[in-house]
Structure formats: C-alpha cells, structure tokens
Amino acid sequence: xxxxxxxxxxxxxxxxxxxxxxxxxxxxxxxxxxxxxxxxxxxxxxxxxxxxxxxxxxxxxxxxxxxxxxxxxxxxxxxxxxxxxxxxxxxxxxxxxxxxxxxxxxxxxxxxxxxxxxxxxxxxxxxxxxxxxxxxxxxxxxxxxxxxxxxxxxxxxxxxxxxxxxxxxxxxxxxxxxxxxxxxxxxxxxxxxxxxxxxxxxxxxxxxxxxxxxxxxxxxxxxxxxxxxxxxxxxxxxxxxxxxxxxxxxxxxxxxxxxxxxxxxxxx
Length: 268
Known about the structure:
By secondary structure, the protein is α/β, with parallel strands linked by helices. It has helices spanning 39-43, 69-83, 95-106, 131-140, 142-154, 157-162, 164-176, 181-192, 224-234, 250-253, 255-266, and strands at 3-6, 9-16, 20-25, 47-52, 88-93, 111-117, 207-212, 239-243. Helix 3 links the parallel strand 5 (88-93) and strand 6. It is globular and about 45 Å long. The model has no long low-confidence stretch (mean pLDDT 95).
C-alpha cells in the first residue's frame, strides 16, 4: 500500500498515467477513491493523475488531533516532494478547494494551473460546527446524514430520478471508505476555520472557478454560488464557469461537460 510520511500521519496515495502531473483534492472528509469513478479514467489518458486520502479518511492515518486545511496542505506537499512533482495542475473540490488555495499561495512553484470547484475562501461568522448539521446528524445518524445531505446539495431531483444506478454507484464509493464520525467532524472544523479571503489577490497562476447553476441552499448564509463569485472576483484574471442545471457533485452527475471545460482551460 503506497503511503508517504507527513509529520504524524501516513498518507495513502495512488498515481495513474503519465504526463503533466494533475493533483486532485476531494470534498470534506472524502477519500481520493471518489475520483476513480470518472476523473482518473479521463485524465490518466495523458496526465500523471495523483489522488490521495486526507488524514482521517480512507487508508491514511487517523491521528486524534485538531485538523486544519494548512495541515492537509502540508500533507500534500510531502506527497509532491515524495513524487518529485514541481508544477502540477491542481484541482480542489469544495473543502479541497480551500486546501488547493493554500498550496497555490504558500507553494506557488508547485502549481502550474489551479481549478477551484464549488469552494470558497472563508465562512461568515465564527468557526465551529454548523448547528443545522449537528441537528440533522443527531436526528438521522451519521451515515444517513451524509447520504441525505449529499443527495440534497449534490444532485438535482431530475438526476436522482433518471439515473438511479449512477447515483447508487456514487454512494457506494463515497460511503465505502467512510471514517469514524470523529474524523468527519474534525474535517468540518478544519473547513469552517479556513480563511484565505485577504490573500486571493496573491494567487497569480491561471485559475478556473467552477460552480453548478443550482448550488443555492436557503438554509446556509453563504452558498457555493456566492463563495465562488467571491473567488472569481478576488483572484486576478480568474476564469469563471457556471455549469448548467448542476448541483454540488457535478463531477459525478455530468462528468463529460466538466471534463470538456477543464480540458479547454488546461490547454490554454
């Protein structure tokens, strides 16, 4: 099992294909396995695709300490050092986009192009666990919460009704490497405590900001649509693309369109 040592954790990783390095960061508390559904088969055709499990997820170590997005960034740097990668295309989805921002800001020599998918620079208000999330997790239980919340924010009703097999395939992978609830909460806290809002102007590499057209949750103060707008306006020269009729998990619901947009961007 390939792992790299990063401070107090062993980080599991996989490399697929050859060519320009392409590093993927997944959403909150999600292992790198999720990228093997669609993105690895597509981009490993002509790239060196690098996926990994965050500490606290999948096959990586699960130290019981406070997690931060900077810690996840340091783990990624250790992985890039191990693989001797200097100039990767870096894609971060949701929480992964926050980690990707830190990598671009603190290690710009590592990032050739940056793709920020349905993510943001900060959260309004104080850090901590969202009250609505805690309420639903208590009412539904951990695994049911994760499934129901992901279904609500990630997929349109039309997709869920017309593509039940693809939806179940997604959840089979998403839930297969689900870690103990402790580490899910540690990831949420790291996400909520992230703030790069004052540093967006310092991101200088070509940047693509992606978001789904239907990403708007009335129960939250800051939606992915709103936070993506802030990124696109704050990062000099950022390219902004809104994906029609999509919600948060468009990497699974409409991979062909997403891949087309990404390939156009990385070929520029």
